[in-house]
Design brief:
It is built from 2 helices and no strands. It is mainly α and 76 residues long. The longest helix is centred in the C-terminal third of the chain and has 32 residues.
């Protein structure tokens, strides 16, 4: 870890305190689902996760269709 001078450390602390004061005056950030929209856009890991989820969901759909067709045959 690099060694910072006392002046640099104090300046960093002053910036952090100023930011905390601003947040305190404005109140906490409003929690809203719209803040997260697009947060994972073009993220390769999330795109991979979504693709895997779609594959799993398609397998579930095929199983459900097979069960439904078997059920229709028995009733006929």
């Amino acid at each position: 870890m690099p060694q910072f001078s006392l002046e640099q450390r104090v300046a960093a602390l002053e910036r952090q305190v100023a930011q905390i004061k601003i947040e305190h005056v404005n109140g906490p950030a409003k929690k809203d689902w719209r803040r997260t929209v697009g947060i994972f856009t073009d993220n390769p890991q999330m795109l991979e996760l979504f693709a895997d989820a779609m594959k799993i969901r398609e397998v579930d759909r095929k199983k459900a269709r097979r069960r439904q067709r078997k059920g229709q045959r028995v009733k006929s």
